[in-house]
Write a structure and sequence with these properties.
GO biological process, one term: L-proline catabolic process to L-glutamate
GO cellular component, one term: mitochondrion
Pathway: Amino-acid degradation; L-proline degradation into L-glutamate; L-glutamate from L-proline: step 1/2
CATH class: Alpha Beta
Strand order of the largest sheet: 1-2-7-8-9-10-11-12
Largest sheet: 8 strands, parallel, barrel
EC number: 1.5.5.2
Strand content: 5-15%
Helix content: 40-55%
Structural class: alpha/beta
InterPro entries: FAD-linked_oxidoreductase-like, Proline_DH_dom, Proline_oxidase
Length: about 525
């Protein structure tokens, strides 16, 4: 692309791109020029997920430099490295600092400064306006949390969450889903034994909360999305032997505390705007060393904003070994705390990078061992969600309390979802299951779904030609890999081209008369 741009010049190159890669994978340059594409999709029963796909074209050296600088605290340590219990996966490693390594299908943000994060927030807000203005209120906007703040803070919060889980496992005396252990505040007091009478421990126990079933929560997680949250003071637990209060997070300087509050403020602004505009937000999944923080923050946003409908959706990557357990845990929390649960299920974008990083840093590989195991995880997780939706229907509770997007280009998975919906008794008009694919890919899946009355979406990138080149180059490479595997799609495309040539309709554009569900 860069060579062609040099040879052809900017105007001719832009024109050529519009009739090749750009025209195939991108809807237009701005929120006004994408309208014809959105209207055409809508006529075939397909709705949009908008994504402003402008990316910085950074060198590997520059990307590594930015990531390392933004992942280490000015206090001199990025995580609790002074602790023997520190977890190696939640620290930055220069070898993997360029998060684009072995990743084609996901956009990557690299932190520069707070002003850049503010601009990213403004871009997401513009996407929300575009969704509302051009999609009749049926659209979705996708965002990434790494666009809104310093990655070091996500690393630290992620480690805190995993350290808290370890503490709870010690209390429970076993492994697995901590919500199944039904440990109460009284159990915690017994666990602390002789040290429970110490002043600091008593103060800690006063702050421990429990839900309606009496199940304890070590920390007031709802406070994490308050703009006055102080991380350093929040995440401390008593040592069961000495009774001394132990930090699960290293001391964070005031400036970085402010950065975290800024990140939460930006996200609150985006989600509140989405709620006011009646548009939905999908928060993308990212690498496993960020994901505990991303999922916890997203879940708290659900608790705050998903009180009447699913506004906020989390994303779950099914190539991870713990996905089923994580989804079950979050579904259980939504049920107990009475908020609407939204989830996008994907296979995932970072599997090769995750495997390489785990091997290099010496921690357990978090990914499933094979494509078949990932498919099994996807189907198992989806089935559990469908089962719970059916329970809601049978109990005359709003089935929309659980909303799921099946985001997959795999025809077998889409067929599995449709079959399971029929078996369990969930109908398209229930509006609890939707399907999603990328613009320009697997149209033979998306369009029949929309025309058959299912809730179908296309992930719609847009942005100026020159500024979406990194996105386009990845899509071209990814599509090549996909098409090598999907013989059916190539056969269908060839058949359609032959048919149009025979009829003299090579540039024929069919018109639909469908209304999206």
């Amino acid at each position: 692309m860069k060579v062609a741009q040099t040879i052809l010049g900017e105007k001719l190159f832009t024109l050529a791109m519009k009739y090749t890669f750009y025209g195939h994978f991108v809807a237009g340059e701005d929120q006004f020029k994408i309208v014809p594409t959105l209207e055409r999709l809508r006529s075939f029963g397909v709705k949009p997920i908008l994504d402003y796909s402008v990316e910085e074209d950074l060198s590997q050296e520059e990307a590594e430099k930015r990531e390392v600088e933004a992942s280490v605290s000015s206090a001199g340590t990025n995580l609790s490295e002074d602790s023997a219990d520190s977890l190696p996966q939640y620290s930055v490693d220069k070898t993997f600092a360029d998060r684009r390594y072995k990743v084609q299908s996901a956009r990557t943000y690299f932190y520069l400064n707070e002003a850049t994060c503010e601009r990213n927030m403004e871009t997401f807000l513009e996407c929300l306006d575009a969704v509302k203005g051009a999609t009749f209120g049926t659209g979705i906007t996708a965002i990434k949390l790494t666009a809104l703040g310093r990655p070091q803070l996500l690393l630290q919060v992620s480690e805190v969450i995993m350290q808290a889980r370890r503490y709870m496992m010690d209390l429970a005396g076993s492994t697995g889903n901590i919500l199944t252990h039904h440990k109460t505040i009284q159990d915690l007091e017994r666990y602390l034994g002789n040290v429970a009478d110490k002043a600091e421990v008593k103060e800690f126990l006063k702050k421990v909360t429990s839900d309606k079933d009496g199940i304890l929560h070590l920390f007031p997680w709802t406070g994490i999305i308050n703009e006055d949250c102080q991380l350093s003071e929040t995440f401390r637990v008593p040592d069961p032997v000495t009774g001394q209060m132990r930090r699960l997070i290293s001391k964070i300087p005031p400036k970085e505390e402010e950065m975290f509050r800024n990140m939460i403020r930006r996200l609150n602004t985006i989600v509140k705007t989405a709620q006011d505009l009646d548009v939905r937000i999908m928060i993308d999944a990212e690498q496993t060393y960020f994901q505990p923080a991303i999922s916890r923050i997203t879940l708290e946003m659900m608790r705050k904003y998903n009180t009447e409908k699913a506004i906020v959706f989390n994303t779950y990557q099914c190539y991870l070994k713990d996905t089923y357990k994580e989804v079950c845990t979050d579904l259980e929390q939504a049920k107990r705390q009475n908020f609407y649960f939204g989830a996008k299920l994907v296979r995932g974008a970072y599997i090769e990078q995750e495997r390489a990083r785990a091997a290099a840093l010496g921690y357990e590989d978090p990914t499933n061992p094979s494509f078949e195991a990932t498919t099994e995880m996807y189907h198992k997780t989806l089935t559990e969600c469908l089962r719970r939706i059916r329970i809601l229907k049978d109990a005359n509770i709003d089935p929309k309390k659980i909303a799921i997007m099946v985001a997959s280009h795999n025809e077998d998975t889409v067929r599995f979802a449709i079959k399971k919906m029929e078996e369990i008794g969930i109908h398209p008009e229930d509006k609890v299951i939707c399907f999603g694919q990328l613009l320009g890919m697997c149209d033979y899946i998306t369009f029949p779904l929309g025309q058959a009355g299912y809730s179908a979406y296309k992930y719609i990138p847009y942005g100026p030609v020159n500024e979406v080149l990194p996105y386009l180059s990845r899509r071209a490479q990814e599509n090549k890999g996909v098409l090598q595997k999907i013989k059916k799609e190539k056969r269908l495309l060839l058949s359609e081209i032959t048919k149009r040539l025979a009829k003299g309709q090579l540039f024929y554009k069919p018109k639909g008369k469908y209304v999206p569900i």
